[in-house]
Queue: 3 jobs
Job 1
Amino acid sequence: MKSTSMRNRFFANLLVSAFALISWAADGDDFYRNPVIRTSLPDPTVIRANDGYFYLYATENIHNLPIYRSKNLVDWQFVGTAFTDESRPKWNEKGHLWAPDINFINGQYVLYYAKSEWGGEWTCGIGVATAEKPEGPFTDHGAMFTSKSIDVQNSIDGFYIEDNGKKYLFWGSFRGIYGIELTDDGLAVKPGAEKKQVAGTFMEGTYIHRHDGYYYLIGSTGSCCEGERSTYHVTCGRSKNLFGPYVDRKGQSLMDNHFETIIHRNDDVVGPGHNSEIVKDDRGQDWILYHGFDASDPDAGRLVYMDKVEWIDGWPHVSGDKPSKISERPDVGGILLADPTIFCEDGKYYLYGTSASGPSGRFEVYVSDDLDTWQGPLGTLDGYVLSPETFGTKGFWAPQVFKHKNRHYMIYTANEQIAIAEGDSPVGPFTQEKAEAITFPTNAIDPFVFFDDNGKAYLYHVRLKEGNRIYAAEMSKDLRSIKEKTAREVISVEDGWENTWKTQYGVSEGPTVIKIGKTYYLFYSCNDFRNIDYAVGYATAKSPLGPWTKHGTPIITRQLIGENGTGHGDLFKDKDGHWMYVFHTHNSRSQVGQRRTAVVQLDFDGKDFSVVEGSFRFLTLP
């Protein structure tokens, strides 16, 4: 249940903080201090949006439902409210906006919220609103249901989840926790769907998290909103199925009001509870945000705290089962692009790659003046550069951007085919007169266009033919097709470092070609990208079509770099004339994605390339 008290104190705080970052970090960049937001923001919900920011929404101690934004989960800034007085939901006029739940569904941001007043357990209900951007403006679609219409007393605290291709909403507050199937757009209860109870009467603030084959039903029990007398704490049970049965460690049912406690009060924080979704940082570490009262100043309201979640013996665990004072910061700020490429123009570096998020992964662009400080995404299409009207519906991979005859081109993979678009600027938009792909005899991916000294263009690419094999072919003058008669296989996998899993059909991919003097150098990656031994080697030739002689040993490997899955990148020169190679690595020792973007400097001795010791670094945002 939610409180709207202590507003005078809250608005005094807001006047101080509305135009400044709210950070209570400990000394040094590696640690932070709780609370992470010293403003009353009960019942937080968090999403990492397509622009790379985390957005937090909370029960409306700020009228019309507050929105905060952060790059790193520690430093938060107030950016506005989900609604205005004009757009505010009109149903249940006496109700306040409580317990929002933010999601990205079918290309739009969908916000579920409760509308209730104290004691209004049969007039309250759950509504839904949508927006194109996480900061809004949100358009209200009204009540999905009320307590009376769904026949569940105190129908508040909605939570959305997708499972096995279906969409569900769970909700409830001390009168049982229920779930029901939604329509495909997530905006209404599916006609004919029946609600099902999954937990007893001890909890509210429902959140379900999937981890290692289990569903974890997390919520809060006790009194939420009585300042220093609050007894709120975070609870948990788990099940192999979304709709239960959920049990505690002893196998006792949550339907019978049994549970495990994850976070309880300590001398510093009273009433910790109603947590957000568990969010991951760039290293795949789990973090949970929740509200609580500062024991030394309970009149300040329910502040926002954050702690790391570890998984021990199959259960979520917060150190000491209580809020921390000072903790190591989340690892956030890395650029998470796979198959990266860098295009240089007018003293700027433009970074593109395969994105794990966004509308069909239509390619973000990040920009830097020095390879150290990056900004973005800065594409002209809400951060993206490729027009939605170009070829493809899925699998947008491995772009390359180049300039030819005063036009900028992006050649890319989509639907396991290769297409090329053009534009006036490296930040887009890149468009096609016809949304079509280049014709190949097989599916083809990972394109790279190389212009030889004679003006001819060659397309290096990967054909999906008994594995992944790198081919080269001369292109037509308009760059819209290849001359298939010139096509030939230039790199295929051999035993050794190129196939450590010893698969029947190996993987060679990610070609990049340069010419130094009379010698052509082809950089490529081998092993499946999920393999920790993914690595980069190169071959040389006297002709763009080969034959190619392999260098013999890879030059970028996990043994050399210290990170798993090193590969699939692009070669370029920095402003000082140094050869640089941008590539991706695995997210961590245990997880492949989201893949992280990194760069190394290469030394060229007139014949061979090698990595400059100590030059490896990840690319990060401020």
Note: The radius of gyration is 27 Å.
Job 2
Amino acid sequence: MKLLVRNLRISLLKEMPLERALEKKLDVAETALQNIKIVRKAVDARKKENIFLNFHVQVELDAPKKILQRLLENKDVEQIKSEPPVEPKFGAEKLTAPPLIIGAGPAGLYAALELAQYGYKPILVERGKPVAERVRDVEVFWETGDFNPASNCQFGEGGAGTFSDGKLTTRVNDPVMGSILQTFVNCGAPENILYEHKPHVGTDRLRSMVANLSQKIRDFGGQVLYNSQVTGFEVEGNTLTKVVLNNSEKFAVGAVILACGHSARDTYEVLHNMGVAMETKNFAIGLRIEHPQDLIDKAQYGSFAGHHLLGAADYMLTYNDDNLKRSCYSFCMCPGGQVVAAASEQGGVVVNGMSNFHRDSGVANAALVVNVTGDDFGHNPLDGVQFQRKYEQLAFQLGGKNYCAPAQNLDTFLRGAEPSVDGLLSPSYRPGVVASRLSEALPDYVVKTLRLAINNFDRKIKGFGDGGALLTGVEPRTSAPLRILRNRENYVSISHANLYPSGEGAGYAGGIMSAALDGYHVARAVMGRYAVNE
């Protein structure tokens, strides 16, 4: 019988093999246990003097019926019944051209893969370069400040997530998640993402995974076109008939999946000008904070900091101020990572966080961001873009107009004193930082909320408020500043009959996994409407 066993707890004070812990929990002979597989692994550090690893495992048990009946009475044990994958339903409407997917981020890649493996021969167009060429361009930018507006941390194969921590966590509970993770593993992601409570790939592993996903699309009969920016559409009535690439080449289109990413501002303008239904969306803006990783490890794990079974510690912090009616929270926390230059437009500075799979840089960084709404920036769909751009350009000015970033240590930021970057660690941002008053690069209400929040966070994580911690700005690209409206039932635009908004850029996802999941569901919606290409 195949069983799922939950809450298999192993104390770091009394380390033991997983097999031994399972044998003790079930009270059976070790020889009865076969094909043990970890389903979930989490760290329970609520009691820092006795930290536990908590496992859920799948196991095949060869035991008498009486023992099996006893085990199934345990609330932590249940029998696993295999369920076949859900096959798509295919529609009857004829496609006038292969499905076109705009953007090779997680949503676009997964939508293209899903369509390709069922014979639809999709065409995936990406404004940037293949991931290997893109990495070289980004490294040149970080080293020299030579910025390429078509190939950077936002644009290119893999999307914005390629230069990140590669987190694969999501709050969305969907049975498809397991198959998406398995696809990622098949494309080169580490197998532990299948069971870690907070799985991550790291930017180094993510790059090869992305390239392999693209190759799978081609293997199934799809096309991937790089350096192909969508610059316009031709429309008849409310139906897209052609897409214009690079202001010259035109493609006939049937279904169009729009997965452009949250930084494709020129694409937003094209869509808005042609009357695609969209609305403003709340987002957040703030700064990156850096601490020595061992400071965070000790605060989170106490004497177990540095334990070989724990790795680099992370954190998640929130602060709400009823008087200001603002919230501040940590975002995209990168253990053992670095702060990166993530601009996508000339004349703007944008920061983000990134880490490799092993998270071994010795530096912990996270965004500290404050919520903003249409009441702050306006209710026209493109007003949020202008709001972001304003503060990116201010940061560019403060940094010296060469893509260096404004920065200051926490002490001078909290006191409003003459800025300094002296402190606990050297800045990790490249091409460099300039000591600046970060209060000049953000709205006053954001600065005020950040100062209150940091004092609050210091009470939650010992040493968080050390004045030597470093702040670098600005981070305005936490999510899309607008939403491209679609019907809930069939995922199609409410204004254009064959346009399918998808992913983070359309306002329907918040990370790699939720974007890939949205791409999957949008692709299934396309299949449910249209017949397979002949």
Note: DSSP finds 13 helices and 23 strands in the chain.
Job 3
Amino acid sequence: MNKITRKGFLKIAAAAAMSGVTAGALAACESASSAVSGAASAGSAPAAGAAYIPGTYEGTAQGISSTVKVTMTFSETAVTDVVVDTSGETASYGAAAADELRQQLLEAGSAEIDGVSGSTITSDAVMKAAQSCYAQARGEAVVTSVQLPTGDENDWLGAEPDIDEAAITETWDTDIVIVGAGNGGMCAAAYAAQNGLNFRIIEQNVAVQDTRHWYGAIDTSAAQAAGAEPCDRAKLLSEISRYASGKCDQRVVKTWINESAAMHDFVAGILEGEYGWTCEFTSGSEATWPAENAEHNTDYLYPVQEHNYMASETASGMQRNQAFQDYIEKLGYSIDFSTALAKLEKDDTGRITGIIAQSNDDGHFIRINAAKGVLLACGGYPGNPYMMEQLDPLGTSVTTACSYSPADRGYGIRAAVWAGANLDKEAAPMLFDRGVVPPGQDAGYVDSESAFGGKAFPGPIRQYNPGTQPFLKVNRNGERFANESSPYNDIVYAAAHQPGRVYAQIHDDNWYEDVQRFHTIGCSAQTRNGGPDYVLPKMEEAEAAGCFFRADTLDELADKLGFTGEAKDTFLATVERYNELYDAQEDTDFGKPAYRLSAIRKAPFYGCWLGASLLTTEQGIAINEKGQALDTNNQPMPGLYVTGDMSGSFFANNYPCLMAGVAMGRTMTFAIKAIKQMAGLEEA
């Protein structure tokens, strides 16, 4: 992922115009820091020829667990002494870094230092506090940095910032504001640009965000060209509603079903027409579980039509979002990078009239008036541990690794809720059964000084793709506990009832033949289609991380996996029982289809411990079928539209992972829908 440069986002406004910002947590859509200014320093200025007003100045900033204080003494030309107080930080990390940070500040001649590895948050706080000292010494505004805009462990939402008019030093006027240059935002921008609309798109990072390549769309021109049978749309609507336990808005789902084909035609028109890419289309038997599964899960799994442009992107060197950026720039538009959402603005009638944004380069505020509306496409909240723990305690408890964008911290969601929007009441995490970890590691957060919010998931690998295969899985007692032939998140939720909320996966050297017979679909098919050339490097990577083991005997494998005593005996007995079920071609214990059973007899034997890998969250702001945000009475909020992972009304409980690409198809369909609505390109 491309992220904003470390020094860039740490710059804090020092201009006197900033003195009107009210102290409080300033939220930024996917932003990492915020600042407020106090009173100007006595109207003083350095003497002629001097850089600083001699004296001693103090600055503070919020660290990981305490307020960090920096005291700096200046002569007219240089810093002569620095005191760094990090005594309230974690003893082995932030507190221990004080001496090195002090030395860096003395040598740097500025507040922009490298910091100390492993003490990122404390280092950032020291730099912010030092910037305040420099501002005071130059006779500028006294800059006081406040707590990171994340809420806290007891209140994920926090308070909306109160930004004084004097702090807003720039105003932009446009028709449409798009917040976020990710999958939804870039699709919206490309559509707006193609139609010659007046819009601005802002992104708090310094580059467009990573592309999620696959997207689901229904009965497209690609499907027709491939000779695919038309989808049973009523059945698809029913299945998505069933996945959500009926907690979705079926009218919202129908917008995707009915308008995703037009979305695909738009995307194809650019990627194929402008850039010569070729769509990889998947449907039919490749996207469907084998017929043998039907007797066990009748009508439970429903394939959709999947589209992917990844292969062509390899030759071009671009991802889809980068191609969209190139496309809009050729049409005369640009992306305002390093510009983060601070809050939404509305008039006396409640209509959203625009936003206040903050420059991450120098901290100044910008009012962006949007005559026709605002589209929020800021992502979910997987990178915010406060929101994860409070909004999705179950998903958090079974997760061992992550593959999310670290910038997805829920700031767009928070800004919308501050403005009166209705957040879905139930979590919907996108969990993949691929979070490989060493033996003995529990699921859930571990303390991490260098991570945002001081917490991180322990898995060293983003996703171990073979973890999805329906091999034998056992708990720490050596017991089998579930039918392993299931959608990705089912096994990790089943592990919520097991010791440590993790499980071991076991298979033998016939694994390649087994995965061909298993015929898993969606992204797990990479293991089947990639074969040994794809899988063996994955195994070696996990092995090097101490998370994957191979052995010549099952007894040896049990030892490597950490089974001892009665648990080891149970483990060996479980493998023997599993072989008996395979021989009988009937799983009388948990009902797994026979074609997904496998023998464990041919050495070497393989094993690893797994939990969930969190990709993103789908709990978002409630929307209607037009993409409009809904207020807490489920009435449309004039002028506000939402798409992508921060939009709701579509998923609940989980993500229907076996309907490959449905979330991304939804994201891009509603991105276009919102632009059409705001621009009057269809009936409002």
Note: The longest helix spans residues 250-271.
